[in-house]
Amino acid sequence: MVSPAADIEVDERLVRALLEEQHADLAPLPLRALDAGWDNTLWRVGDDLMARLARRAVAAELTVNEQRWLPVLAPVLPLPVPAPVRIGLPSDAYRTRRSARHRVVRTEMRFALDFKFS
After folding, report:
1. 50 domain-assigned
2. Are 100 and 45 in contact (CB under 8 A)?
3. Measured between alpha carbons, how far is 26 from 39 in angstroms, rounded to an integer?
4. Which domain holds residue 35?
5. 0.70 exceeded by the pTM?
6. What is residue 4's predicted lDDT score, i.e. its pLDDT?
7. DSSP string of 1-58?
8. Residues in Cβ contact with 23 at an 8 Å cutoff, skipping those fewer than 6 apart
């Protein structure tokens, strides 16, 4: 199935500008586009972080829910949960909230699944 068209165009220039605006310590880190899904786009920030930005307006409220609940749920779930470690607030350049979180490496997920279901 093809994803719907983006309401918000997210490119490297925008991601870099948002980092410079609210998380200046992350701005010099390398950026790499990872993927764009139904509602969000993912960017690798440096070696350890992943930025998640809404590409459709309907996803904006979901981001707020994630920012509220993932930190609460992460410690009690049996699998690694990428809870936000940085939160971007709405600005003139990008009018919705966004998050940066630590990447979950496949080997971490595989170990957790093996442990949980063995």
Report:
1. yes
2. yes
3. 24
4. 12-117
5. yes
6. 87
7. -PPPPPSS---HHHHHHHHHHH-TTTTTS-EEEEEE-SSEEEEEETTTEEEEEESSGG
8. 86, 88, 100
